[in-house]
Amino acid sequence: MVEQDPASGFNVTIGRGGRRPADDRQSWRALAGSDRNQPADDSLLLREVRDGNPSYWDEAFAQRQWDNAIPPSAMLASWLLPLGWQPHPAPEFEPLAMQVPLPGSSPVDISTDTEVFQKTRVGNRLIFSEQLVDISAETTNRLEGGHFATVGEYRNQHGLLLARATDMLFRFTPHAQLSGAAK
Amino acid sequence: MKTTPTQRYWQDVEEGDVLPPLVMQTSLKQTIEHVGADRDFMAGHYNPAYARPQGQPDIYFNALFHQSMVDRVTSDWAGPACFVTRKKTAVRGSIHAGDHLRGEGCVTRRYVDEHGRYCLDLEITLSVAKRVCCDASAPWCFPSLQVPPPFAFLAEQAGH
Can you give the pTM of this predicted structure? Predict the structure, then answer.
C-alpha cells in the first residue's frame, strides 16, 4: 500500500468570488497552498451539462435550503486538477495512479464510488489525501495495460471527513505510441 | 424573475417509479468547453489525433461529465432540495462530441435509513443510440412532508 505524504498533499481553500451582474450568483474560487489562486468557477461545469439546479445558481435558495452556498459534487475532483500554467511555479497534483512507474501513459476512468458525508461549503479548506490500494495484473486483450484502485479522502480544515472517493483507473499505452508514431 | 423548480417529496415517490428521460444533443464546442470548465486537459478530450489511436472515433467527454449528467438526470426530476449520499458511477463507453445523449432512471428502493433520513435508491443510465455509456446507482435523501428543511447532514458540526 502506498500512501501519499499528507504534508505534500493537495490543499484547496474554498473562498467566495465576485458577484456576476447578470445572474447575481456567486462564483467559487479555489486557492491551492498559500500563494496560488485557482479560479474554478462551477458555473462553467454546470453550463456544459445544462444543470439549472438553484442550489448552485440561486444564492438565496442555497442559503435557505443548505445554510450556505454549495458546489456541485464534481467540483471536488475538478479542484484537484492542475491549471496547466501559472505565473509562479508550484507543485501540482498528479493522481497516485499515474505516478506508479509502470507502463501505460494514457488514463481512462473506469469507475468512481463517492461517499458524501458533508456538504463542502464556502470557507472550507480542503485537504486531500490519497492511497493506492490495488494494482491489477497486466491485461493482454484489446488494450494492454492495468487497473489501479485508489481511495481519496477530502477533509476540511477541522479534519472533518467531507467525502471519500474510490476510483478505478485503467492505464494503457495507445497503439500509436507502441508503434513509435508521434503523439 | 427567478423560479424554483418543482420539488418532489419522499412521500410522492414509489418503488419502480421511472424518471422522465433527459435528452441532450452534444456538440464539439461543448466538448471543448468542458475541458476548460473542469481543467481535465487529457488530450483525448480535445485532440482527435490523440483520441483515435486510443481506439476512439473522436474526442470524448471525461468521467466528470458522466457524473454531472447523472446528477442532472436525478435533480431535474427530484427537485433541488435533495442530496446524494453515495454515488457509484461506472463508465461503460465513451460519449463523443456530437452524440445524442439520453439519460434514464428508476427508483429501486424507498426506505428510511438508519439515521432517520428519507431515502430513495436510484439507478441511472446514460446511453447513446442504445449503447450504454454510464450506469450509476445512488441513494438520495429527499425532503419529507413531515420534516421541514434544511436537512442536517451526518455529524453536522456547528462552525464546520
Answer: 0.83
